[in-house]
Amino acid sequence: MPVLGLLVPALIAVAPAQEARRHFLAFFEWDSTTLSPEAAEIVDYAAEEMLKNPALKATLSGHTDRTGTTDYNIAKSQRMADAVASYLVIRGVARERITVIALGDTRPRVETGPDIREPLNRRVEIDLTGD
């Protein structure tokens, strides 16, 4: 019994500190570039992380489902990522800390055929990098 008493504090003492989240997904409704309340909550959390750590930079990757043409989806993914960037700026993050990438339907989370409305594919991925 005394052995357990000695091991538990040692295990707790060496446990690593929990790191801040660095990857977020903000999902969008079909054919929309407006942040839903749920998506805004996720972007709020990313903004808080960036404001706590001024060394962090955000890469925003816009993605769409396979409805619409390739050109339309690239443009829509750009508008979705721009909406997230604008929201981060409104929350106090400097625009210079944000990079926007439009990927259209080239990197789906869920593989589908053409013209399939897949909610998990309509997203902006927010990746925070830095110290």
What does this molecule look like?
It is a single chain. The chain is 38% helix and 18% strand. It has 131 residues and is an alpha+beta fold. It has a domain at 71-123. Strands 1-4-2-3 form a 4-stranded mixed β-sheet. It is elongated. The model is unreliable at 1-18 (pLDDT under 50).
List the helices and strands and how they pair.
Layout: H1 2-14, E1 23-27, H2 37-52, E2 57-63, H3 70-90, E3 98-102, E4 123-129
Parallel strand pairs: 2-3
Antiparallel strand pairs: 1-4, 2-4
Low-confidence stretches: 1-18
Class computed from helices, strands and strand pairing:
alpha+beta
- Tell me the number of helical segments per DSSP (H or I, 4 or more residues long): 3
End-to-end gap: 43 Å
> Roughly what fraction of the amino acids lie in strands?
15-25%
Number of DSSP E strands: 4
**Major sheet: size, sense and barrel closure?**
4 strands, mixed
- Secondary structure: helix percent: 25-40%
Biggest sheet: strands side by side, in what order? 1-4-2-3
CA-based gyration radius: 19 Å
Task: Report the principal-axis shape.
Answer: elongated
